[in-house]
Amino acid sequence: MPFLNDLSEREALASKVAAVFSERVVQEATPGARFVVFDASGAVFDSGFGSAAAAGSPPGPRARFRVASCTKSFTAAAVLLLRDRGLLSLDAPVTRYVPALQPTLPAGQPEAPTVRMLLSMAGGLPTDDPWADRQESLSNAAFHAVLRAGIRFVTAPGTRYEYSNLGYALLGQVIEVVSGQSYPDFVTDNLLKPLGLDETVFDPATVPPGMLATGFRKVDSDWQPLPFTGPGAFSAIGGVVTTTGDLARWAGWLCAAFHPNGSDSGPLSAASRREMQRIQCPIALEPTDAVRLKGYGFGLVVEHSPQFGPIISHSGGYPGFSSHMRWNPQTGFGVVAFENATYSGAWEPATKALDMLLNATTEASTSEPTPPAAIGELAAGLLRLLLEDWDDETADDVFLENVAMDRPYPERAQELASLRERAGTVNPDEASVVPTDPGGADSGFGRFELRVPCTAGEIVASVLCGPPEPMRIQSITWRL
């Protein structure tokens, strides 16, 4: 994997990224901002700007911010941990664990959402950011009273994406019922401590004096400080208080599930962490979206960029705070950003920063990836079939058995003979093999194109390799 410290323009890049965040303070989007950039090796560079309190210095590495909905990734990981231990089923209705919830849709035969539906924001509950953000300290008894009084559903469970904090508060209750611990205690004992996230807590009152950033709301031209709320029944939606360093370690650990080495370290398996980062419920694309597809995983947003491949992220917005974490599994690059202003939109500078990092890496990578040896052998065999008389023995070395069954060898031989006539002079010395499966194994060469210059332009073979080893071709189309 690439490393940011290996980039020749590393210092200039760090300055440009820092300027993106310092500008947020200059523009008065927030009183203070702090960020950290990481790659597969850990934190690479970081900085803070503005003020972390009513009057004071810029937030330092140990400054604690509330990260709001970035907490949902901790909640999702805790649920999967219990699932992996055989203690709960993702496909059980949530009412098995929280019977106080009374579903209302579909009309006449209401269905309770499953745990999986709530994890993926497909539970049928309405979007509820303003209301839910004020419920953190609600007691379990008071929460259950709200549930028994009736909850409005907006869609039948499992039918579409709808962001719901209440759904994650219900998951917090599931964790407590199944584990026998409070939500903060279970997450602390089973995730925070094993991963060494020692500066991450759920109770702001436990943060050492002088380390807690003050959250603000802008009133006219002044910043008005806001009080903190303590842990309660809604801690599972946004209760984490932490440093940029700790959240970057958390994000890096999730991202490491895609790394070839050391991916199974920590309390949750690499497979379960990848499950969190896979689209579980699609989100309809907006006309302004510059992505191929997007959706909600488990506690994380998943987007597929045509330029950079998958981008995993989550934002947090709370009275007094805004946060964002995002990373690219293909490179291991990521950014964590905190701001101490209500819903200020920390996702904006974080997104710009990660795009800068990925663009810089793309520009620095001038060499084409080298095909694996097995791909080189397949390409050489295809060239022999293209340039010489058809040879069934060569074809059998190159193709899986279905190829001859799908279209007999004589027909394929005739196709190539016709292609040679139309192509004119063929230049095999300048043939190239180009991967077409970004993010896939074998550097993406499991799907590839063989491109061969010729007088009439270029002969292109589009290839799909099959599952069995040794690697051979299951599908091929030729074009001029």
Automatic annotation (TrEMBL):
The keyword Hydrolase applies. GO terms for molecular function: hydrolase activity. It comes from Pseudaminobacter soli. Signal peptide: none annotated. Pfam families: Beta-lactamase (PF00144). Gene3D superfamilies: DD-peptidase/beta-lactamase superfamily (3.40.710.10). This is Serine hydrolase. Residues 18-345 form the Beta-lactamase-related domain. The lineage of its organism: Bacteria, Pseudomonadati, Pseudomonadota, Alphaproteobacteria, Hyphomicrobiales. Keywords: Hydrolase. It comes from the Bacteria.
